[in-house]
Design goal:
The protein has about 500 residues and is of the alpha/beta class. The protein has 2 domains: about 10-270 and about 470-495, Aldehyde Dehydrogenase, Chain A, domain 1 (3-Layer(aba) Sandwich); about 275-455, Aldehyde Dehydrogenase, Chain A, domain 2. It has 16 helices and 18 strands. It has helices at about 25-35, 65-85, 85-100, 105-115, 125-140, 175-190, 200-210, 230-235, 250-260, 285-295, 315-330, 350-365, 395-400, 415-420, 440-445, 480-485, and strands spanning about 45-50, 55-60, 145-150, 155-160, 165-170, 190-195, 220-225, 240-245, 265-270, 275-280, 305-310, 365-370, 385-390, 405-410, 430-435, 450-455, 475, 490-495. The chain binds ligand TXE. Ligand TXE binds near residues 172, 231, 246, 271 and 401.
């Protein structure tokens, strides 16, 4: 298959950027960026290439004292950053986006190796391009004051000001892009930001921050690398005013608990288990590629990926076999190889989760249509693109978030039943409905318990369209005007 369709759709992002004609110079720039983020005083930790398992660089392991120092510096820098005003901050964010564009190939190579996603397809180049696009959109978006009452006697306006210092805690699946989702609106509104990347993928995020910091004033944006204890300290720090978190539901709950101490405002983008419902009138061949990339973008390691697919009995076998064919065809392998569009799992823990869930599905009657086993010939963390048919709710592969390349396809005969099953889990990030009849699809969509419901696609995000979960997938919106409100405090001016 030659032209994978990016599931994250953004007109400003070119998902199929041409191969770099100056591969050698990008590799040199990559080395220079990795050098910049290396621990200064020894120590730190080796980070491995997810595909080859070779060491690609060394990341700092910073202490709680260093984190405290970072928060103190960010706090000291915040008033002057806010005082710069919207226009000047926007100018600097646009300049940062230009810097990212200039280093895009080197950043893409780092994230490809560290995270595993291939350069091509909706992969590492797409991620680097997305970082610039989200920064530009945040720079261009305006949060206007709102006149809430103006009746001749009372004039009351709602204005939005910076919250203060934002703690940004990120995951390992789209490490740079999700960091920018947190950073861009926060900076735009006049906050300073302390970023704690995932311990699995610190290099790409620190490299990205170093590029953005080429244009920002000192201490406005500070990265601190380390493990869970550092995340816990950042979330509970008395001088953190807002926490932006993307990660697991379990950690999200801990952050909610710690917010009882510092009263930090929270945006929590937690795990998902997105359902897709294929209605009987859908055309299996026409939707197969959209379904495939909805599920397998970033080799399934995407928060709002399609993770369980409900297909009407009348077209069930056609959809299953179309997906099975794609799963066999789409090239998987080392990300720097221009041929590949699927990669490895990022870490052993996630590899073990996927293996366990597929094995369990097989024991519970699941029919493996494609894949179903590790792809050891490609490397330690590769798992074949897997389609499992004839499973039902109650099987762990359906009920738990697999976060990897294994899609369960569930048969239904009554759409009411499919809706009930889609709504039956705690997760509520995304969902999708697939049909030739848009109005019928919209009626089903409105009954699904999810922050976003896509029709005839799954997982596309856009920097102006609000994105966030309901139920166990967290709360708070990112992107667009709503995203700016989430990193601001409202103030009423009455009079
Ligand atoms: O997440 P964690 P992990 C899901 C996916 C995966 C599971 C676990 O199902 O299997 O989560 O992944 C920091 N206070 N998603 O272990 O632990 C941590 O250092 C504050 C879905 O990576 O939640 C890291 O920076 N922070 C998700 C970040 O939280 C803490 C993407 C995420 O780590 C902390 C990734 C604490 N007490 C995994 N403990 C999505 N929605 O996209 C850890 N951290």
């Amino acid at each position: 298959m030659s032209d994978p369709t990016p599931a994250l759709t953004d007109p400003a992002v070119d998902g199929d950027a041409p191969a770099d004609a100056t591969g050698a110079s990008s590799a040199q720039e990559e080395d220079a960026l990795l050098d910049r983020v290396r621990p200064v005083a020894g120590g730190g930790r080796d980070i491995k290439d997810a595909a080859t398992r070779q060491v690609i660089g060394r990341a700092p392991e910073q202490s709680v004292a260093e984190l405290d120092d970072a928060v103190a510096r960010a706090k000291a820098a915040q008033p002057a950053w806010e005082a710069l005003g919207h226009e000047e901050r926007s100018r600097l964010l646009l300049a940062a986006a230009d810097r990212i564009d200039a280093s895009a190939e080197a950043l893409a190579r780092i994230v490809s190796r560290e995270q595993g996603k291939p350069l091509n397809g909706p992969g590492a180049r797409f991620e680097a391009g997305g970082c610039a696009a989200w920064l530009r959109t945040a720079a261009a978006t305006v949060l206007e004051p709102e006149v809430v009452v103006d009746d001749g006697e009372v004039h009351a306006e709602l204005i939005y000001k910076a919250v203060g210092v934002v703690g940004a805690i990120g995951p390992w699946n789209w490490p740079m892009l999700i960091a920018v989702w947190q950073i861009a609106p926060a900076l735009r509104m006049g906050n300073t930001v302390v970023v704690k990347p995932s311990e699995y993928t610190p290099l790409s995020v620190l490299a990205l921050l170093s590029v953005i910091n080429e244009v920002l004033p000192a201490d406005v944006l500070i990265g601190v690398a380390g493990g869970r204890e550092l995340g816990a300290r950042l979330a509970s720090h008395p001088d953190i005013d807002k926490v932006m978190f993307t990660g697991s539901t379990a950690t999200g709950r801990k952050i909610i608990e710690s917010s009882a101490g510092n009263l930090a405002r929270l945006t929590l983008e937690l795990g998902g288990n997105d359902a897709g419902i294929v209605l009987p009138d859908a055309d299996p061949q026409a939707i197969a590629e959209g379904l495939f990339w909805g599920a397998f973008i970033n080799t399934g390691q995407t928060c709002a990926a399609l993770k369980r697919l409900y297909v009407h009995d009348s077209i069930y076998e056609d959809v299953v076999s179309a997906l099975g064919q794609l799963a066999e065809q789409v090239p998987m392998g080392v990300g720097l190889d221009e041929e590949n569009v699927l990669g490895p799992l990022q870490n052993e823990q996630q590899f073990d989760i996927v293996s366990r869930l597929v094995e369990d599905a097989k024991r519970n009657g699941g029919r493996v249509v494609a894949g179903g086993s590790p792809a050891a010939e490609l490397g330690e963390l590769f798992y074949r693109t897997t389609i499992v048919a004839d499973v039902a709710d109650g099987v762990a592969l359906v009920d738990e978030e697999q976060f990897g390349p294994a899609l369960p396809v569930i048969r239904y005969s009554d759409v009411e039943d499919a809706i009930a099953r889609a709504n039956g889990l705690e997760a509520g990030l995304g969902a999708s409905v697939w049909s030739s009849d848009r109005d019928a699809a919209r009626k089903v969509a409105q009954r699904l318990q999810a922050g976003t419901v896509w029709i005839n696609s799954h997982g596309g995000v856009h920097p102006m369209i609000p994105f966030g979960g309901v139920k166990g997938s967290g709360y708070g919106l990112e992107f667009g005007v709503e995203g700016l409100k989430a990193v601001a405090v409202p103030q009423v001016i009455n009079g």
